[in-house]
């Protein structure tokens, strides 16, 4: 565990808000935020020890005129030497979750931060779940800055700022770019290798941000995309890309619960399902009712052998099964519903009166099992170890006020048109072409039904990158769900693989 000392030493880095580059601009357009708080702590895995300074503070998000748009909450972990000094040449990684409308606690206290809530397979955690030094923390390879998007966590939008300015694809990326540059400036870290680490919508943000930062002369060393989604079209009702992406994930879940794939290695089974989606299901869906009833039944029989649902059910649905239906149908005979973020997690099926598909879509055992524990651990760390007096309410999820109001219009550079369901893979490709020294890691899980692996592989393949740029991309796939770090064997494997990624020239 970390040191008992909760006070920052005299030699610790100055708090992130110690400089005010816009002294003449009124600062009373945002409700007050707590003062920064820091502490020097220590991490160990039993063999290695890292001293670090953790700081909870807000970063100013200002437009080019100096007008304040909001204050973004940050929780940083910076390794220091015996004298308490940071290493300015050490990598620094800016990490966040997605939503849109999610704060960064899961990827921090669930995944790569120096403290982590210990998980228990696919079991729901008790309130007493242990919090300990994380043997797989990314702090071993990089200093870490976890950022909460405006409107989430303890981040606040300025009172006179139209939320539409920041609750949008472009506005959100712009706000993060400005917060990142604010942190780099105030902490004297412009000489550090700079990384982005986003999860879920955080990868959508990454796609725009990696291009935007490059346009603002912030050269990135690497970007990590965990549970990536880049093409919003795949989320729209009736889109065949949705059904194609779901199919291998359904097959993985069906095998996990013993409904299909007996005796086959799970990775091999998933590869077979990926191939089936490419070679059989895609042409069938493309033909629609031109496929014909006989051929549709043939494909339904093959599909049934993968996903474990009855042939007549699949034929009646014309080979297109919505996630909510699959979650409800796969384990119906056991009276259980499987998860969305990680299909291996289960709960008892709801009451018959709870028939709303929208409501069921938001109920997720994979989230219920761990989310509250992460937030409790975060609150205890900030209050007890940093002495940070945060507001009583921490908006870990703020979908109602942020996600529901999100403005999806975005123009992929070179297309000449803003669209409401953008494919930001074009932003990723453009950023790689402009900076061919940048490296990209794409991480996915077999049981992730929120951001399916088939889709992100398809999306990048359609950018026709050169062989040299493809060499800059590292693909990592594990036996996990959306929040890969929940699965401790996956977390250990990610630790090794991401270490190698950071060491890659």
Automatic annotation (TrEMBL):
<dbReference type="InterPro" id="IPR001563">
    <property type="entry name" value="Peptidase_S10"/>
</dbReference>
<dbReference type="Pfam" id="PF00450">
    <property type="entry name" value="Peptidase_S10"/>
</dbReference>
<dbReference type="GO" id="GO:0006508">
    <property type="term" value="P:proteolysis"/>
</dbReference>
<feature type="compositionally biased region" description="Polar residues">
    <location>
        <begin position="1"/>
        <end position="10"/>
    </location>
</feature>
<feature type="region of interest" description="Disordered">
    <location>
        <begin position="1"/>
        <end position="33"/>
    </location>
</feature>
<protein>
    <submittedName>
        <fullName>Peptidase S10</fullName>
    </submittedName>
</protein>
<dbReference type="GO" id="GO:0004185">
    <property type="term" value="F:serine-type carboxypeptidase activity"/>
</dbReference>
<dbReference type="InterPro" id="IPR029058">
    <property type="entry name" value="AB_hydrolase_fold"/>
</dbReference>
């Amino acid at each position: 565990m970390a040191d008992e000392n909760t006070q920052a030493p005299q030699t610790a880095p100055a708090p992130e808000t110690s400089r005010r580059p816009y002294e003449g601009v009124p600062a009373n357009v945002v409700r007050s935020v707590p003062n920064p708080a820091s502490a020097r702590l220590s991490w160990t895995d039993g063999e290695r020890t890292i001293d670090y300074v953790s700081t909870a503070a807000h970063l100013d998000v200002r437009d080019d005129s100096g007008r304040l748009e909001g204050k973004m909450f940050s929780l940083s972990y910076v390794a220091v030497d015996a004298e308490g000094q940071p290493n300015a040449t050490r990598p620094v990684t800016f990490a966040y979750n997605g939503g849109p409308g999610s704060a960064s606690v899961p990827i921090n206290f669930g995944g790569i931060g120096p403290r982590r809530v210990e998980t228990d397979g696919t079991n729901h955690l008790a309130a007493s779940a242990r919090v300990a030094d994380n043997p797989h923390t990314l702090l071993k390879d990089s200093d870490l800055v976890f950022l909460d998007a405006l409107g989430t966590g303890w981040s606040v939008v300025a009172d006179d700022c139209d939320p539409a300015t920041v609750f949008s694809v472009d506005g959100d990326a712009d706000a993060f770019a400005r917060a990142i540059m604010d942190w780099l400036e105030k902490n004297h870290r412009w000489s550090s290798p700079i990384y982005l680490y986003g999860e879920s919508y955080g990868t959508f943000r990454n796609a725009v941000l990696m291009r935007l930062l490059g346009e603002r002369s912030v050269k990135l060393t690497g970007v990590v995309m965990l549970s990536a989604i880049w093409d919003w079209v795949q989320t729209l009702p009736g889109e065949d890309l949705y059904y194609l992406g779901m199919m291998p994930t359904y097959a993985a879940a069906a095998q996990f619960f013993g409904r299909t794939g007996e005796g086959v290695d799970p990775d091999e089974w998933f590869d077979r399902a990926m191939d089936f989606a490419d070679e059989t299901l895609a042409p069938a869906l493309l033909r629609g009712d031109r496929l014909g009833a006989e051929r549709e039944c043939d494909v339904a029989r093959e599909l049934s052998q993968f996903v474990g649902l009855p042939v007549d059910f699949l034929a009646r649905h014309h080979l297109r099964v919505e996630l909510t239906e699959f979650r409800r149908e796969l384990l119906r005979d056991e009276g259980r519903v499987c998860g969305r973020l990680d299909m291996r997690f289960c709960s008892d099926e709801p009451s018959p009166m709870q028939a709303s598909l929208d409501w069921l879509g938001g109920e997720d055992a994979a989230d219920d099992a761990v989310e509250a524990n992460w937030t409790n651990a975060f609150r205890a760390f900030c209050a007890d170890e940093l002495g940070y007096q945060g507001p009583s309410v921490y908006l870990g999820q703020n979908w109602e006020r942020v996600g529901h109001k999100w403005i999806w219009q975005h123009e992929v550079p070179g297309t000449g048109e803003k669209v409401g369901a953008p494919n930001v893979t074009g932003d990723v490709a453009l950023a790689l072409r402009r900076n061919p020294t940048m490296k990209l890691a794409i991480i996915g899980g077999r049981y992730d039904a929120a951001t399916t692996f088939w889709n992100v592989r398809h999306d990048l393949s359609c950018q026709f990158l050169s062989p040299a740029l493809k060499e800059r991309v590292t693909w990592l796939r594990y036996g996990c769900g959306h929040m890969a770090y929940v699965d401790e064997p996956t977390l250990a494997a990610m630790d090794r693989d991401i270490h190698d990624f950071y060491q890659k020239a």
